[in-house]
Amino acid sequence: MVYEATTSAPVNIACIKYWGKRDTKLILPTNSSLSVTLDQDHLRSTTTSRVDASFEEGDKLWLNGKEDVIKDGGRLWVCIKEMRAWRKELEEKDSSLPPLSSWPLRIASYNNFPTAAGLASSASGLACLVASLSKLYELPQTPSQLSLIARQGSGSACRSLFGGFVAWREGSDPSGNDSLAEEVAPRDHWPEMHALICVVSDAKKGTSSTSGMQRTVETSSLLKNRLEVVPERMEAISQAIKSKDFEQFAKITMIDSNSFHAVCLDTSPPIFYLNDVSRAIIALVEELNRASGKNIAAYTFDAGPNAVIYALEENMPVIIGAVKKYFPTTEEFEDPFKTQTNDLPEGFDVRVVREGGWEKGAVKGLIHTRVGDGPRTLGKEESLLNEQGVPKTLA
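^ that's the sequence the OP posted. Answer follows.
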């Protein structure tokens, strides 16, 4: 009997940013946040978890084919420990269950996108691990309850346990039991929501999110103001999503992205996640909105230079055309709309972007995607492990 589960989990990109912890051990945030889950057909993590009494040398983990250390007391270790504890509770209530909680684990995980490049790889990966272990251990917990564990691995991971539009509630209990993720609206509520990811850099960022946000909490005077306005933004953007009001959604998304990067700059020493290309993309989106007479696009940037541009499907060809015109990419882009680069709104002021556009490669590549679903359970044929419990890529 092989005890194994393979799952995939999505990336989520926040519209209201999580930045700062009030408890670094439990990963309790200083403010609530809200994100859009992106389609797994384009960006996902896949994880296979297997237990066997015959496995030696304890638990083992491989990430993208390379063995990694499960550090005692580390975040990954905590997630595994908590999931095992839930399985053990089931075994204690039903002696007929195999003692999976006591057997060593073999875990293989693979991301189909750049790790540590500001594309929320840790969120997708930790959510996938928790989803995989939940299936392996046949746990009854809901996605919100599972988010309590995923949160302790990577804060944003709790939001990747849902599809659609997701809120991570700040909570107030010191134990963290009310700091969890909840669905605001499912994927099918607003399927017209699309996203264009502009990969400005796939290099590992200079300041990690973990160290950066703690420096902000310790040194930024602007953070206090941000924390005061986030609750109102959370309510307003939730209502915009429920009523499918893109103009309001876009306004709040861009304001909050700018607010987040402002507190990064207000940190001592300052944190620079955006670069000149990032700022040029902001100028491009702002001018597209001005020339269109309404918000047809919304930019947002996580802790990195890569832009995520949200737009409704009907307006995505204009966005893609403008980006292709002024930011020619080195990587070939399969444009689903076959857009023309001269299809700009009447009155668009070309002076807001560098004359003649940026050199080829300023934006390395584009990823067009849309709002997506939550974790998926995959079949045995998609397992990442071979019969010996080693990644197939290493066999």
